[in-house]
Amino acid sequence: MSDIVxxxxxxxxxxxxxHIRSVQTLQTSDTDTYCREIxxxxxxxxxxxxxxxKALADALHRSGIAATVAGxxxxxxxxxxxxxxAEMEELMVVKMMQQTKGGYDLQRGLDGAxxxxxxxxxxxxxxxxxxxxxxxxxxxxxxxxxxxxxVNDEIRFRSRASMVFHTQTREESAEMIEAxxxxxxxxxxxxWLSARKRHLRDNSRLxxxxxxxxxxxxxxxxxxxxxxxxRRLSALLTEDPSLAHRSVTEMYRLVGGDADQxxxxxxxxxxxxxxxxxxxxxxxxxxxxxxxxxxxxxAVLADRVRPSRTTLRSFRAAVKSMGPPRNWSRxxxxxxxxxxxxxxxxxxxxxxxxxxxxxxxxxxxxxAVMKAPEVFARALKHKGQRLGTTEQALYxxxxxxxxxLTDVEVKAPASxxxx
Length: 419
Known about the structure:
With about 425 residues, this protein is mainly alpha-helical. It folds into 3 domains: about 5-20 and about 170-300, no CATH class; about 50-145; about 310-405, no CATH class. Helices cover about 65% and strands about 0% of the residues. Strands 1-2 form a two-stranded antiparallel sheet.
């Protein structure tokens, strides 16, 4: 990637984290409860290190977490899913039983960190490489120079792998293609941001910067917490902006088995932000300009940009369509109001109606936030609604509905595409 293009993406980044945002509480499973009991027995001297690890490994195995994480991605066949799950099970047990560097740290569990959270992060990060290794094992003979054979006087076409063999190994070829693709993504992201940033301000500018970086580095979106946790983490980030880059670096080292290199751990609330990042994603952000991580974290903790009235009408219509025709409309309106209050800014940064109106909007938002648990509970009890059976499922459905209407797509400006 060009240093000039890279600097263009960074040049307008905010210097601090002056943005307030939302939280997601992690659900404590039966497995975590059982694991905490095991760890407590270890702390009380009732179990040895190795027996504790065996018990934890058995609990994780019986939880089915490997199959769950493996099943989060599509596969070409059921057998491939079975193979990936088996490899994940083995990795999870090996890492749990490993008492040396790179293995599970019992002290981390004693400090309150989720054991299933550790396993989930480990398996998600390893999932792509496990799938790739399984494919490589199946196709390893493709790297041997093929012999052109004749069947019924017709020459068989060479596979793409055999053509790659004539120039370099498959990995080298993939690296060249990946480098070219990365450069193109960076150019597209820079052009897209340049075309938009003059018309943006505050949160909309921050959102666009994060979207451009997500496209440029080909990374997933950060996990967005709910409001209370967003505000807590945002306050910490305002005091110490280095927490953003330190958190992705800590995740990178934890996943890579270099926990001993972590000299100053960050608040544990920052680590789940990177849950969906594969090892190569973590490496890309941990080893680049710290402003990249700062912008990504600021954006995910920030109030989302206030939707237009048209978008809000479409959102309400979508939510109303998820319930029965009778007595649902008012409940749907309240659900929408609560969700918008929890996720979005109280008023647009482009609003020019005056401070009195803004104060009213802020007060209205605060009331809606306080009423949200009651509103969601009432919606969940409403017979015939299809938003979900739990608050977590309902919230996820609402989030998906609004994202379908508001998510931005990074692409080359029309003028650049025409050129």
